[in-house]
Every structure is written in C-alpha cells, then in structure tokens.
Amino acid sequence: MTLKRFIVVFQILISIMWSRSSWSEEQANPSVAVASTATTYKTVNFKVPVQVHGVGRFNPILQELVRAHGLDAALMNPATAARKGIREGDEVWIETLKGRRVKSVLGLSERVHPEVVATIQHGLTKGADFNSLISLDRETMDFVGCAVDSCLLVKVYRT
User: Fold this and answer.
1) For a surface tag, which of 16, 87, 91, 101 has the fewest beta carbons within 10 Å of its beta carbon?
2) 98-148 pLDDT, tens digit each
3) pLDDT at 13
4) Mean pLDDT for the chain?
5) Where do the structural domains in the chain lie, given as residue ranges?
6) Quick one: what percent of the chain has pLDDT higher than 90?
C-alpha cells in the first residue's frame, strides 16, 4: 500500500470512528453511580484506532497523522471545561487522588460524559498517558487475577 493510500484510509477510519457525535443522557448506564464533586472526575482511557496497545506507537508516520488530527489530547466535555475556565488547547495537569499526575493538552468533545476525563491509553506526543496514572499497590491490584483497578478519580487544573 502506498503512503497516499494509507493516509486516505487512515482519514476515512478517523472520520468513521471518531465522529464528534454528542453524548446524551440516554446513553448513560443508570445503574452505575458516578462519583463527582466540583473538582473530581472519573477518568477513562481510549485508544487511537491505528495505535491500539502501543502497536505502531513509535512509527513516525502514525505519530504525524495522530498529531495532525489532534487525537492525542485528553478529552473533556465542553460544558465541564467552561465551568472550570479551561479552553481547548490549554495545557492541564491531570492528577489522581494518590498524587500521580501527568501534563496534557486538553481537547473538547461532546462525546465525553460531563463527569469524565478521557485520556489516551499510551502517551504519544502531547497527550496524557493513562498507564502512568495507575498506582500498583495493595489497594489497586487484584493479586488473584493480576488485574489493575482502572477506575481512577482525578482532578484537572490548568498549568
């Protein structure tokens, strides 16, 4: 596959998989209780379609495409960001309640729940690395199944 074809296919994938559809209350799972205060949000991780689980993470062509489309920014709901006085493109700190923090550029998206901050699973260029926020200790590790608690409460503030 030539580079031009690859770029066209990549852009089609992006337009299909990352359309800026709005989040709605009907999409929420009412049985899940979301812990929220004025400054604490749940964080979830997302994957860029062409760089899942770090495959291709260091490929310069993929890095440039991700950077060009702004897919490596942490995402927050625009209404939540407006209440906090944060604008798209601002650099923010994302800090867990245990004190682990990462710096990221913030992107705004209606597809993110107002009480959630979405971070990319693997840090690419300017995005928050979700994996670096996880603490490996007795409280967050399941020693039977070797799973790690990935439901992190975080604070978000400008740098």
Assistant:
1) 16
2) 888 888 889 999 989 999 998 877 666 656 777 788 888 877 777 788 787
3) 61
4) 75
5) 37-158
6) 18
Structure-token match 């995402």, residue found: 75
Task: Bin 13: left if φ > 0, else alpha if -120 < ψ < 50, else beta.
Answer: alpha
Distance CA 149, CA 142 (A): 8
* The residue count for the chain: 159
The pair of structure tokens assigned to 7 is: 């770029």
Structure tokens at 46: 């997302």
C-alpha closest to that of 63 among 127, 155, 109: 127
Torsion region of 96: left, alpha or beta (phi above 0 gives left; psi -120 to 50 gives alpha):
beta
Instruction: Give the whole-angstrom CA distance, residue 136 versus residue 50.
Output: 28
94's enclosing H/E stretch is strand 91-96
> Would you call 47 exposed, middle or buried from its count of C-beta atoms within 10 A (0-12, 13-18, 19+)?
middle
